[in-house]
Amino acid sequence: MRAQFVMSEIGVGLRRNLTMTFAVVISVALSLALFGGSLLMRDQVSKMKGYWYDKVNVSIYLCNKSDAEDSSELGSRACAKGAATPEQKQQIQTDLEKMELVQTVHYESSDEAYKHYKERFGHTALASVITPDQMPDSFRVKLTKPEKYKVITTAFAGRDGVQSVADQHTELDNLFQMLGYLNWAALGIMLIMLVVALLLIVNTVRVSAFSRRRETGIMRLVGASSFYIQVPFIMEAAFAGLIGAVFACVMLGAGQYFVIDHGASLRTKMELINFIGWDEVLTKLPLVLAIGVLMPSLAAFLALRKYLRV
After folding, report:
1. DSSP annotation of 63
2. pTM of the entire structure?
3. At the topology level of CATH, where does 56-167 sit?
């Protein structure tokens, strides 16, 4: 097969269907950019989980006098026996330190809790009416295996002197669940764009084959094989898909550079979040390029089986 003939046929096909080819390129670029973005979002969520789940603590809040009074008035059983005694506090700390799951135990007094509260929420109206005696004493527990935080809840919830056992995993789980929904939404939009791109590719190949039906008929009469006739059309679709994939890679790289890394980006504004780096982005680009070439080629091949009959 002469490469010069194939390349000339590709050029002819692209010029004849320039607007449809442009639509194919844009559709492929957007769908693949969403696809790559979804993969990167999944990596980001996994990285955030590993980073934050390793840092969160389990907090055991102890009963104080205010809690005991509220319990007696409202009929609550959590602190019905009064504020936590020094003996109860010592027993809780001893039991915590004996557990292999526990890495460190930090006792935070009500005065320390009030100080930290004022530092974080001192600008709010509620902070002006909160007093130190309303803040509970607590134990901040760091675990060697954060995913087993429920062991602490089971062991200490409901004990005398314990108001409640709280962990930060619940809030993080809600956050990661929301991010997961956003990722699924991006995948849904990507699938819609992918279907649009495939339909455009099929229509483009159909129009191109119809406009060159006389040439393909002559080629068939002189003995050209079906594969020889189909190659220019398949390569047209693959070329358009490749251009779209390149644009998608550029969009992913630009997003990483301008949104996350460069200047006043998320990495500088949100220092507490461990963002993905270029390694994750670069590993996705070959997959995006491969799909950008193979998807249009396969669509064109299937379309030609029906529409290229002479």
Report:
1. P
2. 0.63
3. Alpha-Beta Plaits (3.30.70)
